[in-house]
Design goal:
Length: 236
């Protein structure tokens, strides 16, 4: 049985994940982290990371909070010897590189992913395949109006994949952001040459689209070496 602490369990994604974990017989939610402590519910909720680490025995810390909190808490958990799975967006390359060093120093593992939807992971793989044969790309991401980071972590991840494949950097004019009501998450990659167009589209219609990837990451984090960004390398 793998014991889980969930950061942000009272948020939209966290509340959903609380219910999703109940359906997994090998995963057990033992505590949460939130702005306000609450010890009267199904699991104790702490608002102090150090207190939680002293009082709760667990295996994996899962975070769906906000960037500033997730950044500092991720380092604290790694230094405490805990594996981490981070779904909070906003992490930049220097943040990830630094946490990779911490994970290696502390001999623990971590997964930071901009998107846990299997469809979004596959669209990135398909985009990388297209980059072997095409050079013209546009990336458009659509999200709900409360999405803070712009462009989204997934769109940035796709652009970074293209940067590596094409050996050049996509300018900001090739990555576009839309914020509108009625949209949860959608990513659209347009590929072309003078004779043809390919369009890759992935749309999440509910948070259930992220469930499979999150559970997959929680189970896999013990098997990797150090800290990785994205789930691409774990899919065969």
């Amino acid at each position: 049985m793998k014991r889980i602490v969930l950061g942000g369990l009272k948020g939209r994604m966290g509340s959903f994940l609380v219910e999703a974990l109940k359906a997994e017989p090998d995963l057990l939610l033992v505590a949460g982290l939130s702005k306000e402590a609450d010890f009267d519910g199904e699991v104790p909720i702490y608002n102090n990371v150090d207190e939680l680490l002293k009082e709760v025995d667990f295996d994996v810390y899962v975070d769906f909070t906000v960037y500033d909190f997730a950044k500092t808490t991720s380092e604290t958990m790694l230094r405490a010897g805990k594996n981490i799975v981070i779904g909070t967006t906003g992490f930049k390359k220097p943040d990830i590189d630094y946490l990779k060093v911490v994970a290696n120093q502390c001999n623990v593992n971590g997964i930071i992913a901009p998107n846990f939807s299997m469809g979004a992971i596959l669209i990135n793989k398909f985009t990388e395949m297209c980059s072997r044969y095409f050079e013209n790309f546009e990336v458009i991401e659509y999200h709900h109006v409360n999405k803070i980071d712009k462009p989204s972590g997934t769109a940035t991840y796709i652009a970074n994949t293209l940067d590596c494949s094409l050996k050049r950097k996509l300018t900001s004019t090739h990555v576009h952001s839309v914020r509108m009501p009625g949209i949860l998450a959608k990513h659209h990659v347009i590929v072309s040459d003078e004779h043809q167009i390919i369009e890759l589209i992935h749309q999440s219609n509910s948070r259930h689209s992220f469930e499979k990837g999150i559970i997959f990451a929680i189970r896999k984090v013990d098997e990797i070496d150090g800290l990785i960004y994205g789930l691409n390398s774990l899919l065969t």
